[in-house]
Design goal:
Layout lengths: L1 H14 L11 H11 L16 H15 L2 H10 L7 H10 L2 H9 L9 E9 L6 H6 L10 E8 L4 E8 L9 H7 L6 E3 L7 H9 L3 E3 L10 H8 L3 H4 L3 H14 L8 H40 L1
Parallel strand pairs: 1-4, 4-5
Antiparallel strand pairs: 1-2, 2-3
Helix pairs in contact: 1-13, 2-3, 3-4, 3-5, 3-13, 4-5, 5-13, 6-13, 9-10
């Protein structure tokens, strides 16, 4: 990587040009390009009113997650920006029409076509309400209200991009989501790291059948299993520590978009979470390009000082 950066810096130095960042693309143009790349129709509802195109309604949904965190506030923001203003119930009905297959298609287009070396699997939860501490004390309950929404993801530990995701409205064991995560991703990693909750003979067997090396520490009293014992011989502690990257992804998701879910139905909860995941993947691409430019510019300045 470093010789390549030096070569690029030297070539720019000979040409006398200084590397500059491209202009930032508007979110509306990004969503429009993503929608066309997926080959989706202009209107999802065949017999509905042809007033707002589908990509614009998807843009409104992403605006809700990125900026306003409220359908009514998003409606007011679009009015202030002199953009077409659909009613907030129109955005809500559009989110209900988005199926799991459609979300997976849009999500897959935000992933670069590179087979990752190491992937990490983990799960987290989002609370269904954002109740204040004062309210919880008033009802004599300091615990979270209602069952949280569970999110399981598979990430590329090098680029920190989410490769596949599974959203559940009810509690389920972590092991149950592994087959779906490996099936729904286009680019399978060569190695997978996970914590002890994923130590199951079925998980090790599934990874072995797909040609993936599972690096998962065994539970305290788990000694049986042909595929588990096979994994023990190739367990690498240094690679296992790459699992920390998935915790970093969860932290960024919750810092940028909040740690709670506002929607009540399962379809709207899935739409809310997948909108956050797609926005996160697109921001990862921008941040990576920006950091590469900064690194190349730094090498370029060092060469000029010499």
């Amino acid at each position: 990587m470093q010789p390549l950066i030096r070569a690029l810096a030297l070539s720019w130095g000979r040409a006398g040009a200084y590397p500059a960042m491209k202009k930032r693309e508007k979110l509306l143009n990004k969503i429009k390009h993503l929608w066309r790349k997926a080959g989706l129709p202009s209107y999802l509802h065949k017999f509905g009113p042809k007033k707002y195109k589908s990509y614009f309604l998807a843009f409104c949904l992403f605006v809700v997650e990125k900026y306003t965190h409220s359908l009514r506030r998003a409606q007011q923001l679009l009015f202030e920006l002199n953009l077409p203003v659909p009613h907030w119930t129109t955005i809500q009905k559009f989110a209900k029409r988005m199926s799991q297959k459609l979300w997976n298609l849009l999500h897959s287009l935000t992933i670069k076509q590179v087979y990752p070396a190491v992937g990490a699997i983990d799960s987290t939860s989002f609370s269904r309400t954002n109740a204040s501490l004062h309210y919880l004390r008033r009802i004599d309950s300091l615990k979270k209200v209602k069952v949280p929404v569970k999110l399981s993801i598979l990430i590329d530990t090098r680029r920190k991009k989410i490769l596949s995701a599974k959203v559940r409205s009810k509690h389920s064991h972590d092991v149950n989501d592994v087959p779906f995560l490996l099936k729904s991703t286009i680019f399978l990693p060569r190695k997978i790291v996970a914590d002890k909750a994923y130590d199951s003979e079925k998980v090790h067997e599934l990874c072995y059948d797909k040609g993936i090396l599972s690096i998962i520490p065994t539970r305290k009293n788990a000694r049986r299993g042909f595929f588990r014992n096979k994994m023990k011989k190739k367990f690498n502690l240094r690679i296992y520590h790459r699992r920390e990257m998935v915790e970093n992804v969860f932290s960024r998701l919750k810092q940028n978009f909040g740690n709670y879910i506002r929607c009540r139905t399962a379809r709207l909860q899935r739409a809310e979470v997948f909108a956050r995941i797609i926005l996160y993947n697109m921001s990862c691409c921008v941040n990576r390009l920006f950091l590469q430019r900064l690194l190349i510019a730094k090498v370029y300045k060092i060469r000029l000082n010499q």
